[in-house]
Amino acid sequence: MTIRLYFLQASRCIRTAWQLEELGLEYEVEFSPRENKVAPQDFKKKAGGPGKFPTLEDNGAFYYESGNIAEYLEAKYDSQNKLLAQDIERRFQTLRWVHAAEGLYMLHGIPVIYVRWFAGEHEDAKKAMIQGLNKNINANLTQLDEELNKSTGKFLMGDKLSIADIMMHFSVQFLLARGINAGKEWPRLERWLKDCGSMESYKRAVEKTGYDLDQSG
User: What is the pLDDT of residue 172?
Assistant: First the structure.
């Protein structure tokens, strides 16, 4: 069995590496730094498909999109339901966050970065767009903080780490590291970030991949 993770620096790829570590799977890392903030063309060609990251290769088959990869790894390798419960109700409560990580949180966060990078000198339009997006981001993070307060443990689904935490951690880390809604405070959310970051599996993933969110270019 050969698992290979095509890992672009400062990206969602850390989700997949963390999950692989939690599941105790051996894997190889094909790493690339960013060039001018984006993935180099030769690295995109090497990964194939849509040229997006993470890309996971498992025994010659390629898988794309971090949420899809997360569900694939759970279906194939998590026979003990360590990160995704077998109980149908709890399972879909967990998967809610897998999809929200991209479909809600990153959906509002990524455009803010693109506006900052590419809007040029259109300052009034840039400011108006960022303010509008920030309202949604503020509501999203406030909701997450409230959900964490309801949790019976230190993670989203209780005492044990789940795929919900693995997927959501990068989204929140990305939003806060980029200074989106700077000045706001979400104390429970901040504590959750620290709890996730203190997991040995997360530390191993960072060490193995060289992940550094500050190296986005």
Answer: 96
